[in-house]
Amino acid sequence: MGLLDGKVALITGGARGMGEAHVRLFREEGAEVVFGDVLDEEGKALAEETGATYVHHDVTDPDEWARAVGTAVSLHGRLNILVNNAGILKFRRIADMEPEEFDRVIEVNLKGTWLGVKSVIEPMKAAGRGSIVNISSIEGFVGAEGLSAYAASKFAVRGVTKSAARELAPFKIRVNSVHPGAINTSMAMNPDMMGEVDAEAFVRAMVIKRFAKPVEVSHVVAFLASDRASYCTGGEFTVDGGLTTGAGY
C-alpha cells in the first residue's frame, strides 16, 4: 500500500524542480494528482509520463485557482491535499532592486500561497479533512544577502501557515510548512546568485556537506500530507542538512 492511497492532491509549480519530484513521489505513493504550472510544455510531458493531470495555473490569479481546484474535484470527486510549492527567486541587493521586482516575488510566493489556502477550504471541509503543506525555505528563518524579497516572502509564509493552522483545525484541516535548504534545482542554482555566493564557505557551513536531491524534500512533504502526520499542524519542518543549526550559516 502507498502512503497516499485514496488521496487527491493538488500541487502547484509542479512542472520541474521540487514540484516535479513531489508529483512523481505522490503518484508512486498512490495519490491522484492534479498539478499546475505556467510551463505548459514541461507540465504536459510530466503528466503524460506519470498519469497525473496538468493544468495551466498562475498562482496569483484567483480565477485560475478556482479552475485548478475545480479540475481536481470534478475529476476525482474530492480534494484532500494541497502542496503550495510554486515560487520564484530574484537575487538583487536592496539598493539595486526595483519595487516592481520586489512586488512580483511577494505576489507569487506569498499571495499565491494565501490564495491556495483560501481556495481549498471549502472542498477540504466537504471531504471531511485535509492537509495543506506550504513550501517556505530556510530563508524564512535566516535572511541572506541579496534575497530580501525572497526572505520576506518566506518569513511571511510561516505566519500564514500558523494562522491557517489555528483557523482550520476545527474542520480537521492541518497546515504545515516545509523549509528546504540547499536543494539541487535550477532555481537554487540561479546564475546571478551563484556568481555572488562564496560556494566554499557555503559548503563549510553545512553539517551534511552536500546539496539535497529534490525527492528528499518530497518525502517530508508526503509524510505531512499523509494520515501518519495526523497530530502535526502549524509545524515548521526543515530539510536543510543542518544549515540552520547555527553552525556558521
From TrEMBL:
Species for this entry: Nonomuraea montanisoli
Similarity remark: Belongs to the short-chain dehydrogenases/reductases (SDR) family.
Coiled coil: none
Alphabetized UniProt keyword annotations: Lipid metabolism, NAD, Oxidoreductase, Steroid metabolism
Top-rank lineage group of the source organism: Bacteria
InterPro entries from the UniProt entry: NAD(P)-bd_dom_sf, Sc_DH/Rdtase_CS, SDR_fam
Record SUPFAM superfamilies: NAD(P)-binding Rossmann-fold domains (SSF51735)
Gene Ontology annotations of biological process type: steroid metabolic process
Enzyme Commission designation: 1.1.1.47
Protein name: Glucose 1-dehydrogenase
GO molecular function: glucose 1-dehydrogenase [NAD(P)+] activity
